[in-house]
Amino acid sequence: MSIDDRIAADIKDGQAVLAALDQYGLEVSKVSRLPKGHSNDHFIVEAGPGTHVLRRYAQPGQRGWNRRVRSAASVQYEHDVLAFAHARGIPCLPAVPNRDGRTVTEHDGRLYALFPFLDAQTYVDDVDAGVKAARLLAVFHRVMGEFAPPSQRPHRGFRPFLKDWFHDCEEGLGRADEILRWALTLDAQTPTQRYMAEHAAALMAALDALGQFPAELYAQRPAVVNHGDYYYANLGCRDGQIVAVYDLDDCVLDHPMLDLSLLAFMFASHGKPSMDLDVADAVIAAYRRGNDLSAGAVATLPFFVIAHMLHIAICLYGVVRSKPQADAQWLTAIHVELVLWLMQNRCDLSDHFGRL
After folding, report:
1. Residue 241 forms beta bridges with which residues?
2. Domain 122-354 of CATH type 2.10.260.10
3. pTM of the predicted model, to two decimals?
4. How high is the pLDDT of residue 296?
5. What gap in Å lies between CA 75 and CA 161, rounded to an integer?
6. Burial letters for 81-93: b for 16+ Cβ neighbours within 10 Å, e otherwise?
């Protein structure tokens, strides 16, 4: 493939993208940016009779709020999960090997991966769709129960224990409790800082509440590789059927409730501080018919969702700590409000789900 600016004319750094694609030996005719994804860059690659998606993994801080560590080993872990699940019937798209037989491609200090392109619609978020998504998730977890990673994914830990692993997962931000202590004494100079200072004590209380998580849960059931961000935005469909599971960038070894909690919450709340318990119950019931969980495990749903939302909120606090002029109030507020609502209702939610 010749490095021709016309092939990637609408891409600011098209030369770097084409140089990475050159490692795949494709006859590329056009590359264009795909406006999808909050963290990584994606490009549509037209090459001969086929179409692919090239992902360029984000570097810490590239998107401002996102400080996720993505080493080659961590990305390879994701690719191994994709290949394993795909070979066992899960509708996910495995990474394409380059000319050296590797799926993680490096160029100019950046990590890339190439995937087949699948034309599908974003999944709907009604209760029937949630039930179908839960059934597939149960199958995915059963399949991943046979996957034997040598260890936890690099730079990851168990989600409910944010104090213990946050600083390993997010580069340059510090520990979760350190970040919130900074916010408690913050001399706020901007609207974002004032919002963060106002809610820091509530987030510290939420972080402390995670200490009530029943750690024995992990002894009762082996951890499996979770998708890590499994809800309607990361599912592709055709004619109402799920044909693609996208974005395993957050896949991690953890309890199955990590995925199920987020799935049930997002379908029952649409990402707002409320919850239709009938929808959540239907999603959980559909999952348990394919992969049973104890009532005690299901009762931990608020813990996992609080940890998920709190992780994002504290990451944003850490970004503002390192970049005082960062404007992250709107994104911070979304996740802070969810944490506050969940904290206010966590006991009732745990009681409800524990009776299912």
Report:
1. 238
2. no
3. 0.91
4. 94
5. 23
6. bbebbbeeebbbb
